[in-house]
């Protein structure tokens, strides 16, 4: 039995589920927010950003957007979706039927993880597309920004988005494990939000542990200019954490006494 | 092992996490082609046993062989040939009936035609775009049966399948089970806490009480036991003398009357004549013929 069959089965379960709505709604937050706050005039005064933005409008707009997403919205989305997806099984009492079906536990676990990662990628892609649309509207509402003077640097955008995705891998994997492990969605969600808030406090204010080792804030960490030199280390760490947590999670998943 | 056995468990024992023993020395034996009724009151250990058979609970002590293969090492091969319905319906409320089956179709290697066929069998082929969360409990139960039938299984495990079904639904389920057994040759293991619910369709019965099997055999063998368990209540003008007269029948005084087990009605006539010869007035002569339901109740109550 191939992994593709288990994967198709897992995708089918998400059809018409709230996971899609959550993904699209959360992806629309930042583009809408940017449309509201990036204006050429505030209270009748011209914005100081006009000179800066008009130099490379698209790149500025996208960088601001992906920065906000990486700092706050992506971690929050990952924490929410990691609890929402396993709830499809918990809420419908379907775990027993899933475990009584002829598929290996490894393929089942991996296919659930891949579907979860797919939603993270959909969120990132939808966010970028909506930022693009938001930028077009911003150009229409704020002609002084002159967005069309410079083209978007696609390669840079792709590189930043890829780094953001790698940086969130560790957080996403531990949240995935917790989401599968606990029937109540409150526990993984609460732990996730708390660890994230503590991480932000640690990173920007009260330093307790090295921020380049605390993976809950990796996706924000890589956007701080002073951390540029540590970015490769953080990305490798995120991938390594993710691998170890994924394996530990599988050991736990496969050794459950009752399903 | 005997190839004829579809399910054979040896010395199954199970404890819950708190250490409470829920199963003791369960030796289940289900032969190919049987409709096996697994009976017991609520909490007797039926579902725990069925969960062990499907690998939903970790095997602690004992051995499970299904289709002649050890379950632990051949889990996927075995599960491919089993259709199951455990406890409450396991369905995705946000999906339609056909989509629920589609989730599992490829896992079981079933065709799209088979999917349509099983929906027709349970009468849910015309539910259109209605989502499962809008279904009645009976419809959900029928869809769960369709899901169990999807792989065209050699073994069907149904845990309390009549739950939520109305009387018509129960009759339809009964006919369906008989048909699947007769026409498709499916071996069926179904649990229930009511003998009357399944006695019209099963060929073999296992009765479990307090985690122990207290009877296992054919329905005919259960019928024989029923006859053995029949008794007559007698009350005379002198019960003490009557006990002496009938001591060959090993009578038992139960407070207000004498209870004597009997095999057939001729024996009752003989007892009556013996009492009459001793000039005893007979106030009560009441044969108590156990039906299977009463027998089931007696067996499980005695064991409790």
From TrEMBL, chain A:
CDD domains: ABC-2_lan_permease-like. The chain crosses the membrane at residues 20-38, 58-85, 113-137, 157-178, 185-209, 233-253. This is ABC transporter permease. Keywords: Membrane, Transmembrane, Transmembrane helix.
Automatic annotation (TrEMBL), chain B:
SMART domains: AAA. This is ATP-binding cassette domain-containing protein. It comes from the Bacteria. It comes from Pedobacter polaris. Belongs to the ABC transporter superfamily. InterPro entries: AAA+_ATPase, ABC_transporter-like_ATP-bd, ABC_transporter-like_CS, P-loop_NTPase. The keyword tRNA processing does not apply. Residues 7-235 form the ABC transporter domain. Pfam families: ABC_tran. Keywords: ATP-binding, Nucleotide-binding, Transport. One of its GO terms (molecular function) is ATP hydrolysis activity.
């Amino acid at each position: 039995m191939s992994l593709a069959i288990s994967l198709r089965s897992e995708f089918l379960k998400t059809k018409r589920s709230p996971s899609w709505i959550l993904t699209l709604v959360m992806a629309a937050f930042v583009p809408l927010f940017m449309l509201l706050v990036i204006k050429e005039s505030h209270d009748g005064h011209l914005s100081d950003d006009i000179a800066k933005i008009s130099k490379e409008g698209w790149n500025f707009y996208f960088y601001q957007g992906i920065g906000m997403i990486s700092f706050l919205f992506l971690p929050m989305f990952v924490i929410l979706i990691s609890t929402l997806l396993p709830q499809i099984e918990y809420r419908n009492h379907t775990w027993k039927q899933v475990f009584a079906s002829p598929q290996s536990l490894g393929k089942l676990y991996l296919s659930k993880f891949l579907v979860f990662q797919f939603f993270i990628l959909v969120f990132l892609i939808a966010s970028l597309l909506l930022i693009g649309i938001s930028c077009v509207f911003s150009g229409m509402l704020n002609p002084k920004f002159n967005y069309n003077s410079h083209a978007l640097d696609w390669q840079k955008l792709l590189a930043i988005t890829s780094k953001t995705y790698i940086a969130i891998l560790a957080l996403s994997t531990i949240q995935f494990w917790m989401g599968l492990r606990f029937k109540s969605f409150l526990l993984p969600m609460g732990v996730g939000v708390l660890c994230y808030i503590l991480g932000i406090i640690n990173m920007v204010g009260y330093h307790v542990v090295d921020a380049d080792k605390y993976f809950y804030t990796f996706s924000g960490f890589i956007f701080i200019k002073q951390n540029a030199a540590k970015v490769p280390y953080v990305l490798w760490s995120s991938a390594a954490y993710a691998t170890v947590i994924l394996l530990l999670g599988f050991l736990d998943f496969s050794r459950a006494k009752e399903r | 092992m005997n190839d004829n056995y579809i399910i054979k468990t040896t010395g199954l024992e199970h404890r819950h996490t708190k250490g409470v023993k829920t199963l003791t020395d369960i030796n289940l034996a289900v032969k190919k082609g049987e409709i096996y009724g697994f009976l017991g009151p609520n909490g007797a250990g039926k579902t725990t046993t069925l969960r062990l058979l499907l690998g939903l609970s970790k095997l602690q002590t004992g051995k499970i062989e299904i289709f002649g293969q050890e379950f632990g090492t051949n889990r996927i091969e075995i599960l491919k040939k089993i259709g199951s319905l455990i406890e409450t319906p396991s369905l995705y409320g946000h999906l339609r009936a056909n989509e629920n089956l589609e989730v599992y179709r490829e896992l079981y290697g079933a065709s799209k035609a088979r999917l349509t066929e099983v929906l027709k069998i349970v009468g849910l082929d015309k539910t259109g775009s209605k989502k499962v969360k809008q279904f009645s409990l009976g419809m959900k139960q029928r869809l769960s049966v369709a899901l169990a039938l999807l792989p065209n299984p050699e073994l069907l495990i149904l845990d309390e399948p009549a739950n939520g079904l109305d009387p018509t639904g129960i009759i339809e389920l009964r006919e369906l089970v008989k048909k699947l057994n007769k026409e498709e040759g499916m071996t069926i293991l179904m649990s229930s806490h009511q003998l009357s619910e399944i006695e019209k369709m099963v060929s073999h019965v296992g009765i479990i009480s307090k985690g122990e099997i207290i009877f296992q055999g054919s329905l005919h063998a259960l019928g024989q036991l029923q006859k053995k368990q029949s008794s007559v209540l007698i009350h005379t003008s002198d019960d003490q003398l009557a006990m002496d007269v009938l001591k060959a029948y090993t009578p038992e005084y139960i407070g207000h009357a004498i209870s004597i087990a009997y095999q057939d009605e001729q024996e009752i006539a003989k007892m009556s004549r013996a009492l009459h010869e001793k000039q005893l007035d007979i106030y009560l002569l009441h044969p108590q013929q156990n039906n299977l339901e009463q027998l089931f109740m007696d067996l499980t109550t005695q064991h409790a």
